[in-house]
Amino acid sequence: MKPPSFWYDPTPHPLTKLLKPFSKCFSSAASFRPLLSKIKEVPIPVICCGNLTIGGSGKTPISMDLAKSLISKNFRPHFLTRGYGRRKHYSSTPILTLSPQDHPIENWKLFGDEPCLLSKISPCWIDSNRKKCAKYAYQNGANILILDDGFQYPFLKKDLNLLLFNGEYGIGNGFSLPAGPLREDLTVAAKRTDFAIIVGEDKCNLSAELKRHEITPIHVEFNIHSEILRKFSHQKVYAFAGIAFPECFFKMLRQHGLKLFKTFSFSDHHIYTPEEISKFFEISKKIPLLTTAKDAVKFPREVRNNFHIIEINVKWSSLNEKEKLLQSCLKNYNERMKKNYNA
User: Fold this and answer.
1) Mean pLDDT score, 316-324
2) Distance (Å, rounded) from C-alpha 159 to C-alpha 43?
3) Are strands 95-97 and 195-199 parallel, antiparallel or unpaired?
4) How many angstroms separate the CA atoms of 151 and 232, rounded?
5) How confident is the model at residue 90 (pLDDT cuts 50, 70, 90)?
6) How far apart are CA 230 and CA 144, in angstroms?
């Protein structure tokens, strides 16, 4: 889905006014859903990387970065995700993808594009029922769970709720679906937020808004590996992306000194047609063609090998802030282990 432009229009739009009554209904339903849900608590801590808006806040890169840090501290994190856009899988058991080596990357339709990336770091469990995923992950050796998306998933108890924002777009016009991009009101979400993370420059003054809700935000930037910069710093390149905000990807490339001669934008989780695959394959044989890791998994290996895939590095504004977040994870882990031991 490509977000409607009026969601992020600073001036009042006629469609916003027209859809506001439906937004009120959506907000009411969203606020009542947790009250009607039976919450499951698992024996190990659950970290949730979620957002307030539809798509595009950097949940997957942040989830991967946190998993790497936890692994360096000898933890065994497993990811839980519903695998948005994957082919339906009728089974009582969640799908497990351990790594791209265990399952050919061309099978992304079975897993979804994001689990193909997550599984490069740690085992990833895929099912719309995240409670079920949590159970299987725990039984298979996980001692910390990372929920990629799921801030609005009310059926699983989270020990650490991280709310992510895209600094470029913020919360848009501030309205809930369908008049705006919000899945729920910030006032409601703030009550269960432990840390807020703003990705990129805070162009919407989110920091001030979050502080009004007694949340001090953490700032992070996304960077790209230096070898790409060295390789293409003096020539024109093409780029394409099928993510929530392709322009953010193109802007990042330009900010790092790359000269984009032409760009191609697609909606988030776009499924590339045979014609588009053929087109990009022909372009890549003549001109350097850059894309995201999330997009690259959707192409056959022989085509993908011609692309220059941009791997994202997460740069925290302060390592102390990241350590503070991780220490919260460790505190939850120790408390949970003590509770289980005494039981």
Assistant:
1) 86
2) 11
3) unpaired
4) 39
5) low
6) 38
